[in-house]
Amino acid sequence: MSAAEQRFTAMMSGHGPAVLGYLSRRTEPAQDAADLMAEVFVVAWRRLAEVPAAPDETRAWLIGAARLVLANHRRGTVRRHRLANRLRLHLRPEPAPDPATDLVRDALARLGDDDRELLTLIGWEDLTATQAAAVLGITPAAVRKRLERARSRLREQLEPSPAPR
């Protein structure tokens, strides 16, 4: 192990709990604190030459880095929430319940996963056969043939059951 690796390992084991404590008291949920601590130590590794050697100064430097990482995290969270709110405004509202839609959903649920995925890619996601082929990792010709079969199986699922005699 190199001298830099030894120093970093000692820094992490000696100051990791303090950094984690600092972040834990300022984040929710607790898993975020561990992720942020990892980011702090990535910064410390990249800037190891700038980290003071004296233990008290090292701790202060790491807490300062944690403060900056936390600020970046909070800004990112705010941006994500703003984006989610803007997207929500642009999304179409959920359509009113429709018995025909329920029948199709039930019929799709009775199909195999491959048939259902192909039909929804083409029908709901509005992909072309070529685009669906790229998503599924098959050729467009295979998509067209599988789509023909899947539509046939869907029609069978949608046909009313014969009345008992």
Verbal overview:
- The chain has helices at 3-24, 30-46, 55-90, 99-110, 113-123, 129-136, 140-158.
- It is mostly helical and 165 residues long.
- The protein is elongated, with a radius of gyration of 28 Å.
- The model has no long low-confidence stretch (mean pLDDT 89).
- This is DNA-directed RNA polymerase sigma-70 factor.
- Keywords: DNA-directed RNA polymerase, Sigma factor, Transcription, Transcription regulation.
- Belongs to the sigma-70 factor family. ECF subfamily.
List keywords for this structure.
7 helices; Arc Repressor Mutant, subunit A; 165 residues; transcription; elongated; RNA_pol_sigma_r3/r4-like; DNA-directed RNA polymerase; mainly alpha; 2 domains; Rna Polymerase Sigma Factor, Chain: A
Furnish the topology, listing elements before pairings.
Layout: H1 3-24, H2 30-46, H3 55-90, H4 99-110, H5 113-123, H6 129-136, H7 140-158
Helix pairs in contact: 1-2, 1-3, 2-3, 5-7, 6-7
